[in-house]
Amino acid sequence: MIIKTAEFVKSSGKWQECPEPNIPEYAFIGRSNVGKSSLINAMMNHKDLAKTSQTPGKTQLINHFLVNENWYLTDLPGYGYAKVSKVQRKDFEKLITNYILNRRNLVNLFVLVDVRHKPQAIDLDFMQWCGESGVPFSIVFTKADKLKPNAVIKNVEDYKLEMHKTWEDLPELYITSAEKKEGGDLILDFIQKTNDFLIQNGVSFDE
């Protein structure tokens, strides 16, 4: 997919305030220091489309971007150990779960995982919840440039082994580096193929 246009649409504090759900939507989520904004910017070939920060938990709203004028990219608040109060964390969790369960044009959720770390319970639990809730998702490993290739492969295999304890079939997996702009093209190819499929099959999100 060639990115011709990518523009910020709006930030929403409630899922009901999100843009009209009439075109395909793909959301990105992960722990609050996983490199989500950097990956989005690399994929869109735009230096500061999504705001990056050294402070985990900077994204505290649902941010929508219109890409090529025919699909939404959604940047969701991070989950995990962002330096926020327990009340704020519960509010974030409520915002995220309500969005994921109620946004009827959400086609796929990309769950970002830092490839440098061993499988984390918080990520595994979140993906388990997605599976139990019937939410289509893919796993995106980030920061692959921070490790040697063999270490990346080993960590991804460790993740697969861990997930196979509870999953028969694993979702799509992507290995990415925002720094080197690697892997994002495969995600965009997936989005393009999915959008083409939706068009060919006359899928409409209008109620």
Structure description:
The chain is globular and about 45 Å long. It has five helices and seven strands, in the order E-E-H-E-E-H-E-H-E-H-E-H. The longest helix is centred in the middle third of the chain and has 17 residues, at 86-102. It has helices at 36-44, 86-102, 121-132, 149-163, 184-200, and strands at residues 6-12, 25-30, 62-67, 71-75, 106-114, 137-142, 173-175. Strand 5, helix 3 (121-132) and strand 6 (137-142) form a beta-alpha-beta unit. 34% of the residues lie in helices and 20% in strands. The chain has a seven-stranded mixed sheet with strand order 1-3-4-2-5-6-7, with helices on both faces. The chain has a single domain (6-200), classed as Rossmann fold (3-Layer(aba) Sandwich), CATH 3.40.50.300. The chain is of the alpha/beta class and 207 residues long.
Short overview:
This protein is an alpha/beta fold and 207 residues long. Helix content is 34%, strand content 20%.
Provide the fold topology.
Layout: E1 6-12, E2 25-30, H1 36-44, E3 62-67, E4 71-75, H2 86-102, E5 106-114, H3 121-132, E6 137-142, H4 149-163, E7 173-175, H5 184-200
Parallel strand pairs: 2-4, 2-5, 5-6, 6-7
Antiparallel strand pairs: 1-3, 3-4
Q: Please write the string of helix (H) and strand (E) elements.
A: EEHEEHEHEHEH
How many helices? The count is: 5
Report strand %: 15-25%
Radius of gyration over C-alpha positions, nearest whole angstrom: 16 Å
What share of the residues lie within helices?
25-40%
Under the CATH scheme, the architecture is 3-Layer(aba) Sandwich
Average pLDDT confidence is 88
Low-confidence stretches: 53-58
CATH superfamily: P-loop containing nucleotide triphosphate hydrolases
Number of strands: 7
Q: What general form does the structure show?
A: globular
Say what the CATH topology is.
Rossmann fold
CATH class category? Alpha Beta
Structural class of the secondary elements? alpha/beta
Termini separation (Å)?
28 Å
Keywords: Cell cycle, Cell division, GTP-binding, Magnesium, Metal-binding, Nucleotide-binding, Septation
Domain EngB-type G: 22-197
Cofactor: Mg(2+)
Function: Necessary for normal cell division and for the maintenance of normal septation.
